[in-house]
Amino acid sequence: MSDYILEMRNISKSFAGVQALKDVTIRCKPGQVYGLVGENGAGKSTLMKILAGAYKADAGEIIYKGEQREGATAGEVIDSGISIIYQELALVSQMSVAENIFLGREPRYALGVLNLRELHSRSAALLTRLGIRLDTRLPVSELTVAQRQLVEIAKALSQNADLIVMDEPSAILAGSELDQLFSIIESLVEQGVTIIYISHRLDEVFRIADEVTVLKDGELVETRPIDQLDRPTLVELMVGRPLDEIFPQTDHEQGELVMVAEHISSDTILEDASLELYAGEILGIAGMVGSGRTELARALFGADPLTSGEVRLVTNKGASWSNPAKAIESGLALVPEDRKSHGLFTSLSARINVTLPILSRITRMGVLQSQAEDEIVEAAKERLSIVMASADQEAQYLSGGNQQKLVLAKWLETNPTVVILDEPTRGVDVGAKFEIYKLMRQLNDRGIAIVMISSELPEVIGMSDRILVMNAGRIVGEFAHGEASEAGIIELATMADSGANHS
Ligand SMILES: Nc1ncnc2c1ncn2[C@@H]1O[C@H](COP(=O)(O)OP(=O)(O)OP(=O)(O)O)[C@@H](O)[C@H]1O
Ligand SMILES: [Mg+2]
Questions:
Q1: CA-CA distance, 480 to 462, in Å (whole number)?
Q2: Going by C-beta distance under 8 Å and a sequence separation of 6 or more, which residues neighbour residue 164?
């Protein structure tokens, strides 16, 4: 038998008009961590979906545990010891956390009756192993995106796999949650499990991978041991040219006060949050999963009704709002973290997604000006380097990162006063990340104020003019640009009994 647990040889795959993979070969040994990296649309998820049996390759072969695999179904692939944590979360939202973790493999009594006690206790044990406290009876629809991501990881662990593929598992995890994920990966590897780890966060790849494979435009660029790589080299292999990874700054003074929130609470974890927002600044919001960052964004936007306090613009005659439609009318835009259910119309074309919020602007006497529309879509595509076969491609067939860019493009066209970005670079490749940063600074230069929620601490620190730290639903501290450090933010974000230290 060979040294490899898995070989994917000469894999090719096309979708109508798009060659997603060309002659790609990867080989994995047991007990190793393989980083799989590349720009948005490079073909990483497609390769893994072929491994999962979700897509059939046009050419090539898969040799797993020494045997050539022929046309296995997704179920057979799982039974053979491969589990995949998908980039697009795939949980059933009406079902509970525990039911999702054991979907199709529920523990049963001898007569086939569902053993609910066992179901919940085994789920709880898995979650504890991940260091998460979560009621296993909660329906998934009530979880945040980050919590869903953790449930996906628990689900993969429950399958006792020999090979685990993680497609962007960490996209919204930070600090101690990441440490938790990495220590789980380490212990799996000690037990001989093989991990294929896809991430746009290259620091993570350097932290855990033994070898890294780079894909570009569907082709294999290179596979190299991690100790023969440094970050600039890896970025150059991915992007095809050297890239300056420096956060763009603006040099203007703090602008006028544009928006205030006074002691706002909502029917969520959010409690007594106050903040001021100035024209042309980026206000970063840091915190752990479940600390109330997304809830703060939703409360500011009128998406969750306030139970106390007030949010209002200082400009625009002190407008206030109680629902998202009025917020948009007042000049707010929210780019949500859950792009699948709130950000995109996945079965509509990329073109419609970009121009939807501004239809009135490009419609003359009820007729859509398709030339104006084409120009806007073309400009957005250029600016954010969105990879799509054409503007008529349905949003669901774009790669994960390109979907994210599409959501951003859509809101940037509305010309808002305040933009709230919830995890704006989640799943976005390194080149496009810096395009998005530049774009944010261009918005600042036009006086637009930005609230940015991010789990990526280097990004929060590099981009924010001020940083608020959240913990257990409250704002527990503020840093000015230049004063913040990762350690300082993590300390405030993980401090117990934060309520006593409210500032
Ligand atoms: N079902 C599909 N139909 C049509 N095109 C598809 C489909 N799935 C993927 N593609 C295309 O194949 C290419 C590779 O996509 P893939 O999702 O594998 O990229 P990726 O490397 O995972 O990118 P990201 O980092 O953004 O997740 C893209 O051009 C994408 O639009
Ligand atoms: Mg992908």
A1: 11
A2: 82, 83, 84, 85, 156, 188, 193, 194, 195, 196
Instruction: Give the number of residues written for the chain.
Output: 503
Six token digits for residue 131: 């260091």
Do the beta carbons of residue 28 and residue 35 sit within 8 Å?
no
Assigned token pair, 17: 């008009």
Contact call for residues 43 and 221 (beta carbons, < 8 A): no
Q: For residue 41, which ligand has an atom nearest its CA?
A: 1
The two three-digit tokens of residue 29, written as one number: 């040994």
Domain ranges of the chain: 6-239, 257-331+416-501
CATH architecture of 257-331+416-501: 3-Layer(aba) Sandwich (3.40)
Q: What is the pLDDT of residues 26-59, one digit of tens each?
A: 999 999 999 999 998 899 999 999 999 999 999 9
Both tokens assigned to 45: 């998820």
Residue closest via CA to ligand 1's atom 27 equals 400
- Dmax over CA atoms of the chain, in Å, equals 75
Nearest residue (by CA) to ligand 1, atom 19, is: 41
Ligand nearest to C-alpha 429: 1
Report field, pTM of the whole predicted structure over 0.85: no
**CA atoms within 13 A of residue 22's CA, in its CB half-sphere:** 10
